[in-house]
Amino acid sequence: MKCLVTGGNVKVLGKAVHSLSRIGDELYLEPLEDGLSLRTVNSSRSAYACFLFAPLFFQQYQAAAPGQEALRCKILMKSFLAVFRSLATVERSVEKCCISLGGRSSRLVVQLHCKYGVRKTHNLSFQDCESLQAVFDPALCSNVLRAPARVLGEAVLPFPPALAEVTLGIGCGRRVILRSYQEEEEADSTVKAMVTEMSIGQEDFQQLQAQEGVAITFCLKEFRGLLSFAESANLSLSVYFDAPGRPAIFAVSDSLLDGHFVLATLSESDLHSPALCSPELRRLAPPLQAHSTPHLDDFANDDIDSYMIAMETTADSEGSRAVPSISLFPGLRPPCSPGPYSEDNEAEAGTQPGTPPPKKFRSLFFGSILAPAHSPPGPSPVLAEDSEGEG
Question: Rounded mean pLDDT of 51-72?
Answer without folding.
Answer: 88
